[in-house]
Amino acid sequence: MDQLKPSPANSSPLTPLGFLERAATVYGDYPSVVYNTTTYTWSQTHRRCLQLASSLVSNGIKRGHVVSVVAPNIPAIYELHFAVPMAGAILNTINTRLDARTISVLLRHSESKLVFVDCLLRSLVLEAISLFPPNAQPPALVLITDDEVSSESTTVDFPDTYESMVENGDPGFEWVRPESEWDPMVLNYTSGTTSSPKGAVHCHRGIFIATVDSLVGWSVPQQPVYLWTLPMFHSNGWGFSWGMAAVGGTNICLRKFDAALIYGLIRRHGVTHMCGAPVVLNMLTKSPNNESCRLENPVQILTAGSPPPAPVLGRAESLGFIVSHGYGLTESAGIVVSCVWKPHWNRLPAAERARLKARQGVRTVGMSQVDVVDPESGVSVKPDGLSLGEIVLRGGCLMLGYLKDPEGTSKCMRDDGWFYTGDVAVMHPDGYLEIKDRSKDVIISGGENLSSVEVESVLYTNPAVNEAAVVARPDEFWGETPCAFVSLNSGLTQRPSEKEIMEFCRARLPHYMVPKTVVFEDELPKTSTGKIQKFVLREVAKGMGESRAS
């Protein structure tokens, strides 16, 4: 068999862009994108993407150029997931809730050649461009108009509009196929807290694997109705932007998250699938009219981003959501660990089901290996559900590396062949892993490693608590002690005191894990993807000075 070798026939580069061509053939007359009063079919979406890719090339965009997008979940950003790489360029979706200074830094760091800008975000991007140094070449700008929210005409700052580029493009354009499946396809910046940008670069091969893996792992059927509650700028909507084309789904787009609007869209369009961070689950289950929110038909919802508290999972399922739980990172292009549900678990009590579902689970079929190891020795921790270690990954959907950051790349993609995530977890005896913290969020109190996530899970069981986050506060005796930041549910007849919250935790946790400080807030600070900003709370706790716990 030594004479048998790869040939052009069996080594065509893997890319998810072909999913759109297939969708136009198989699902051509079926709806692809729905937004307010606008509906496109898969044939129309395919044609529009080809026309837009053609216009990009005509406007000087070349293979390897970065094209950025600053827009919410509207049809344009969905189409750009195909059109930009179809022009040979690299797609960079930017978080719409960043400030102008940060956006300016990202545009310069990526050397973006062109930016598509939503009409409601024009002033933000223009301010970001104004912050460029005098000698820096700013990117060209294209305005995404939207008559539903703004009828303003284009200005001198936006000589082109999105729709004009679509209209002027060639529908017969031969899209630019990757020369190698390792060619860069997307650039995603992580939601890190430092001033140094971390741009994860993914190739066509990695995105293809991650997309197929996400569909298999969630058992997505043909022609689902998918509601875009997860921002597409967040790791490309975990890959479902391309995934919906693979299965001929209908993409229901919406500009912003609103619980009442979401329940209305679910009923109007017969939504079957949606994604979101645990904060999305929390908001949906805390809607004022919970009884009216009970779903007529089950809706599959995939949550990831941080460990969802068991009480929130229980409330979501009582409304008719079928919750699946996964784990992934910007660097992994999507979900790489999922809590695969075993049928016999359905016979367990509700509290036990919620506890099991809160675990992250096992590797997806597309991941080669996942383990929990001692970060110093690299040795696997005991599968006892107690021994803490760092989650490490090995698989084809991992990033090529961080843009212009070889040092940062080598720190997480080490010589031992593993990608080190920085997430602290345990491995249970049944082979399912469970995140206990980010490595930077572990609280070391009196020499004991304390999981802030575990304390938060207990706080969420308190019926008065809406949201909770636990961080370290300096302590003159213990080194650090847990400090809990809590927002309470509205409409309470009696608000609990700091002491009552502590006593609630003391009845359910070891003494050293009980918060020594409780701070009540109207709302906890969050990132654009719904994660509570613990780095902000850590600074607040640090500013309180050392506690004097006994």
TrEMBL record:
SUPFAM superfamilies: Acetyl-CoA synthetase-like. Keywords: Ligase. The keyword Ligase applies. Residues 20-403 form the AMP-dependent synthetase/ligase domain. Pfam families: AMP-binding, AMP-binding_C. Residues 454-531 form the AMP-binding enzyme C-terminal domain. GO terms for molecular function: ligase activity. Transmembrane segments: none annotated. CDD domains: ttLC_FACS_AEE21_like. InterPro entries: AMP-bd_C, AMP-bd_C_sf, AMP-binding_CS, AMP-dep_synth/lig_dom, ANL_N_sf. Belongs to the ATP-dependent AMP-binding enzyme family. NCBIfam families: PRK08162.1. This is 4-coumarate--CoA ligase. It comes from Liquidambar formosana. The lineage of its organism: Eukaryota, Viridiplantae, Streptophyta, Embryophyta, Tracheophyta.
